[in-house]
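Quarterly update, task 2.4: zinc ion-bound model.
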Amino acid sequence: MFPTSVVGSLPRPEWLTDGISKFEKGELGREELERYYDEAVVLAIKQQEMTGVDQVSDGEQRRFSFLAFVAERIPSFRMIPTADLMNEEAARYAQQMNLHVGIISNPVIVGPIRRTAPLVAEEVKFARRYTQKPVMAPIIGPFTLLINSWNSERSGRYYKTPEDAFKDLTAALREEIFALKETGASFVQLDEPAIGNFVDFRYTKWLLALNGWKIKDVKELHRVSAELINMTVKGVSGIKLGVHVCRGNWKADEAHLSHGGYENMIDEILDLKVDRLVLEYATKRAGSYAVFKERPWHGEIGLGVIDVKNPKVETPAEVVRRVEEASKVFAPDKIVMNPDCGFASGRPWPVVTRQIAYAKLSAQTEAARILRSKYA
Ligand SMILES: [Zn+2]
């Protein structure tokens, strides 16, 4: 009972980010940089093992961010700074959210979408060589990818509307899921912060304006998000699948991040054909469990019990209380304990230090031990 996991990313060591800057300036070769990446992944795995977490990841050490990495792997997408895509309407929304547009780049569709190379299967293959523990694979979810990548000006030549890209985009992700099954990943997690942003639509409206989407009612996107996920996982079996919903993970003032519970997206969430929902719940911004009391989810729940944005390390007792509160609504034998989100969704914006991230994972493990002795 009460298995523990990570959600994905862990802060990169400084020597890795320094190495990447050197590589970008031409002062370090590709092969040397690859060695830096390999060593950072081994370190992330060993440090996760030291915390006792049951299911590990490669810490996303090789990715620029949870979203942008697709452009690093396949040429159908190209990283474009959002500053280059800005228009008046988008600028207005960005200002309302105090969004630091300058640090954001999006993987924009710049050609027909084809999975010409593995997205993350090689990451998992490498990580599995260094651990006996199950290795999970966070990959970008189809809705979050599409809303960030289909830009009317840059992608319209290949896909006239976002709908036109549904088939190719979900097929590419499905191919990746099959490859991950082949490599022995324990769990494939589709990251969908764009669903979490349905709580107040500010971030969504910014993206729609930025990318020139013509949507009459933003609520239409609720149906689109579930449809895309279900298209992606259709026909997949023999590997555990999940969807991660959160409200973003910028190093921004929390006051400017989306606030609100799962109420207005509950129909679509319950419609997802996956084994596990990985939900933010440690932060107060995520709302209450009440909605799942009236509308129960029968699968596994990846319960966010660690607040990744608060540098204060939780005590195991606090984490135990969070799980006990949640188990009034979710069946205890379906609860997987994990942090709310990754600890460093993007290389340039880790939300806490490496030391704090691993201390939080240790507190989570200790809490699981207490819970098992109480209830198992
Ligand atoms: Zn997240």
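Highlight for this quarter: The chain has a mean pLDDT of 94.
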